[in-house]
Amino acid sequence: MGTDLLAPLDLAFWHLESDAHPMHLGALAVFSPAPDPAHGADAETVLELLGTRAAAIPRLRMRVRDVLLPVGGAAWFVDKDFDVDRHIRRVRLTGAQSRDEGGGFMAGATRLAGELMERPLERGLPPWQMYVIGGVGGGPFAVLVKLHHALADGMRAVAIGAGIFDEIAAAGRARGGVSVRRARPVPPRSWMPGPRQVAGLALGRIEDLGRAFGVGASMVRASRLDLRGAPALTASSSGTRRLATADLDLEAVQRIRRAAGGTTNDVLLAVVAGALRRWMRERGEELPDEDPRALVPVSRRRPGQAAATGNKLSAYLLGLPVGEPDPWKRLDAVRVAMDRNKAAGPLRGAGAVAVLADQLPSLAHRFGAPLAGNAARMLFDVLVTSVPLPRSALSLGGCPLRAVYPMAPLARGQSLAVALSTYGGRVRVGLVADGKALPDLDRLARCADEEVAELLALVSAR
């Protein structure tokens, strides 16, 4: 693998980063002890295993470096001094936190993961880190993965990270081991494009620019100059991070979907809206006059593109109906709004800000990133994203994967990001928040579970 220019959207994520707003994705993977201790890995063995498998993933050996052309651009280069030990570390919990009794281990692991998510990745190295948390005395352990958003979107991050699991690594060995992909030889041809190619490129560029202009106009119309809203979601940044998790019953979510129509994602978005409403009222906050807006990312990857480099994203804007007291009407409002978004498509509307970013030159991202980051608050209040995971059971060193909680970065002006994944018959919810603005984040996580229970009770009563 040689050099690879950062695409405009990747470059935007790279330059949006600041000390108070690191732009890395995360995942907290929780593992149970091996069923047979004689054949399961301990924490030190897991550390070594992670190092060996991560070092075999070519993309994790790449770092970002500025280039002369295009002006303001950057590219991925192989780090000739790559040392996997600089990226993988063990973090110990106290004995009480390591015992999985009464939530002790999970409470300690999530608290520590939140603190570790505060720290930006070192930019002179390949931008990723893994931490092994816990694993004392044969107890459960967790692996926190941090991966810069410039390197991957959610689907790409899953494709990269899957290589650490026993089942994926074994499949690689069965195919003859992990190898660096090499480009297929291309027959010699003239570097001069033919007339048809020139016409095709010109038409494609005109279409792209027209689409970007439409997105930009939609963003201007949707932007809010009055930034009043829910106090917790509009608080100024403290640079701290807090993590909370929730586990929702997937079968209950699917029963609600079958009764209400729409998609599973519609139900989960309505659960987020209901949880926010419950949480705000319990805090004694007045519900905002205008429903908070969620930015809901949409993958633009086609089937078979999971391994493709870079970010392939767009998004929808969705008003979360926290002002509606009826849970069923909230769900119906979300479903109708998402149907409207999907009918328009992911390449239109103010939510398609990533599509606009993909049309800007490198120099614009380098110097315009701070302005764009500060403008995010004018467009949306909270990020709500779904990350697909493999359906098959996974393990690491013979230790079964129990749960994976995804984590999304916080944009400037946002205090909360919500990420959801499905694994093991549960919807795993990862809540990342500004630690000062949302010190009661655990309560918001519990509100999500309560919202599912109320919707399910309404289904049963119908």
Automatic annotation (TrEMBL):
<dbReference type="Pfam" id="PF03007">
    <property type="entry name" value="WS_DGAT_cat"/>
</dbReference>
<keyword id="KW-0444">Lipid biosynthesis</keyword>
<keyword id="KW-0808">Transferase</keyword>
<keyword id="KW-0443">Lipid metabolism</keyword>
<protein>
    <recommendedName>
        <fullName>Diacylglycerol O-acyltransferase</fullName>
        <ecNumber>2.3.1.20</ecNumber>
    </recommendedName>
</protein>
<dbReference type="Pfam" id="PF06974">
    <property type="entry name" value="WS_DGAT_C"/>
</dbReference>
<dbReference type="InterPro" id="IPR009721">
    <property type="entry name" value="O-acyltransferase_WSD1_C"/>
</dbReference>
<comment type="similarity">
    <text>Belongs to the long-chain O-acyltransferase family.</text>
</comment>
<keyword id="KW-0319">Glycerol metabolism</keyword>
<feature type="domain" description="O-acyltransferase WSD1-like N-terminal">
    <location>
        <begin position="6"/>
        <end position="267"/>
    </location>
</feature>
<dbReference type="InterPro" id="IPR045034">
    <property type="entry name" value="O-acyltransferase_WSD1-like"/>
</dbReference>
<comment type="pathway">
    <text>Glycerolipid metabolism; triacylglycerol biosynthesis.</text>
</comment>
<dbReference type="InterPro" id="IPR014292">
    <property type="entry name" value="Acyl_transf_WS/DGAT"/>
</dbReference>
<feature type="domain" description="O-acyltransferase WSD1 C-terminal">
    <location>
        <begin position="310"/>
        <end position="455"/>
    </location>
</feature>
<comment type="pathway">
    <text>Lipid metabolism.</text>
</comment>
<keyword id="KW-0012">Acyltransferase</keyword>
<dbReference type="InterPro" id="IPR004255">
    <property type="entry name" value="O-acyltransferase_WSD1_N"/>
</dbReference>
